[in-house]
Amino acid sequence: ELQEQQAALEERELALREGFAQMKLAAGELSRRESAIKDSVQFLDRKRIALDRADRESMENRLVSAANFREWSVRQSAETLPLPAPPGRFHGSSAGAGAGTGWGDQRGEARDGTTAEDVFNKYDVFGGSDGRRQQNPQPMRSSAEESYFQGVRK
């Protein structure tokens, strides 16, 4: 009977050792999987951070570009004057652009004195019907055009 008990104990000990070995293998596999998952999460986090940074930089670049364009556009608008009206138009002439069409010369007149003629006569550049003339007959140019023409003259 003692031998049977000892044989049973040895069998149980062998089974326990085998069970522990299998648990160790399973724990090692779980550890490897956990490590791989952590690596994947870190990789995805780095990618997300890089995408966020790229989105932020792209948005900043678009905002800077829009602001630069707005500044350029405002400068261009300020530096560029509208073209003068063709001769005979809006200058009280009955033989002109609207002659014979049934339209009077007062077309487009507003009550606040902003007829087309008033607007055009406001600027010396146009030399309107009040007889004022610009001193320099050259049209005004934007600074970009001026720098281009200076380069051509040299």
UniProtKB/TrEMBL annotation:
Residues 80-154 are annotated as: Disordered. Residues 95-105 have a biased composition (Gly residues). This is Uncharacterized protein. It comes from Spumella elongata. The lineage of its organism: Eukaryota, Sar, Stramenopiles, Ochrophyta, Chrysophyceae.
